[in-house]
Amino acid sequence: MKMWSGRFRQPLDPEFEQWQRSFSFDRKLLKYELEASSAHAQALRKAGILTAEELISILEGLKRIGDLAQSSPSFLEDNEAEDVHHFVEKQLASLIGDRGYKLHSGRSRNEQIATDLRLFTRSSIDQIRAELAGLCTTFVDRGEEADDAVMPSYTHLQPAEPVLVAHWLLAYVEMFLRDADRLADCRRRLNFSPLGSGAVAGATLPLDREFMASTLGFSRPTGNSIDATSDRDFALEFVQTLSILGLHLSRWAEEMILFSSNEYGFIHLPEAYSTGSSAMPQKKNPDLLELVRGKAGRIAGCATALTITIKGLPLAYNKDLQETQEPLFEAAEIVMRILPLVTGWIKIVEFNTAEMLNASDSGFMNAWAAATYLVKKGVPCRISHEAVGNAVKLCLERNCELNDLSVAELQAVNPAFGSDLYQYLAVSAVVALHDVVGGTAAARVKQAIKLTRERIESLRGEAHAHA
């Protein structure tokens, strides 16, 4: 029995009937459909629509459906079910008879799917935030292991200044913690229950919406039935947030690919996450990194698909909204599969700290330190900048570094230079010079590691509290 066929005189075109079904993908929502249906059944009992016996029968039937889905995957192979809502109603009636049809009293599939998708998105956020806590912990652990190891930093992909390896790794943690915060914001905005909104105008039975919201862990009911049944902002915001997370992962992957090349040689690719070439025996390719970079495009595509689907829809529910489900599911699945793999990669990657240090000691990455030296001698900043630029020009002509110029040669550029300059130019001194909050000086980085661990533990605690 279809859920809507009473007024129709002719059957659906068979090809269209198959094409318009969503059960092949929205069965992913079965767990949430059963939870929401249980809450609705209890509200029906409170409203006097169900007897105590009918409520028990329905709740037992819903649990049985969940158990069968867990124990027998073939149970979900249903060529007649139009969607997950139809599937549950059909199976419930099969298990407990016609009283199963009473469950749909006072509700619409429009509010059901809106509720299921919010529950799915909320659960996905909690899982992803927990994974991000693990990923960030691994980054911090590796940073702490690196201790005082130094590497070049870059602007415009050109050598800029030496920084601690830990400082570089913490930069990615900052990105991922922002992603976790954005997900928390999204969760807060989506955590309202559409149950009781009906098809568009609100339920026709005196259902206790506050009770249903509380039962499902929502903050409170939605405030407007028209908006509740047609709103997919939460899905769009969630996937757009995932697209930003994907961009951060892609930037990380790109840098790892660069740093693993022979031209840099800063890292050794883990063989557990790499493959070779079918043609060139010497190759070790960064497959995980390249796939992470590629998957970021898929996530961005899901966000675009959601945006375009929603942009022209009038209020309230339209069948187009069925097309918002697959991009939502796909983006969530991609991220939840990527994060544990990236965490595993970071745990075992080898940093070539000797090569990093060697690269940090050339390319005039101590030039700003030299300019700072002059500033501390009372030379105006702009004049200091120009003087060091002239010294660099001299070095380029002689194929040497600033450290190789004599005091006399330096004083010919600016008389404020003295023999004490050279201690400013050592890699360790250049790193230590950046002694400000958020800087790369060793004491500041140790402080940052401590504070970052506290932020991660707070994130982990929030994620586990919702689990």
Describe this protein's structure:
This protein has 467 residues and is mainly α. It has three domains: 5-105, Fumarase/aspartase (N-terminal domain) (Fumarase C, Chain B, domain 1); 110-208 and 217-358, Fumarase C, Chain A, domain 2, CATH 1.20.200; 361-447, Orthogonal Bundle (Ribonucleotide Reductase Protein R1, domain 1), CATH 1.10.40. The protein has helices spanning 14-19, 23-26, 30-46, 52-71, 84-96, 109-146, 165-190, 209-215, 225-230, 233-260, 287-310, 325-348, 353-360, 367-376, 381-398, 407-413, 421-425, 427-433, 442-466, and strands at 150-155, 158-164, 192-193, 220-221, 267-268, 350-351. The protein has a two-stranded antiparallel sheet. Helix 3 (30-46) packs antiparallel against helix 4. The two termini are 37 Å apart. The model has no long low-confidence stretch (mean pLDDT 96).
What topology, given as strand order, has the largest sheet? 1-2
Number of extended strands: 6
**Mean pLDDT across all residues, rounded?**
96
Low-confidence runs of at least 5 consecutive residues: none
Give the structural class: mainly alpha
CATH arch. level architecture of the largest domain: Up-down Bundle
Subunit organisation of the chains: single chain
Shape, please? elongated
How much of the polypeptide forms β-strand, as a percent range? Answer: under 5%
Name of the CATH homologous superfamily of the largest domain: Fumarase/aspartase (Central domain)
Written as H for each helix and E for each strand, in order along the chain, the element string is: HHHHHHEEHEHEHHEHHEHHHHHHH
Largest sheet features: 2 strands, antiparallel
What name is given to the CATH topology of the largest domain? Fumarase C, Chain A, domain 2
- How far apart, in Å, are the first and last alpha carbons? 37 Å
Which class of the largest domain in CATH terms?
Answer: Mainly Alpha
Number of helices: 19
Q: How big is the Rg?
A: 30 Å
Helix fraction, binned, reads 55-70%
Number of domains: 3
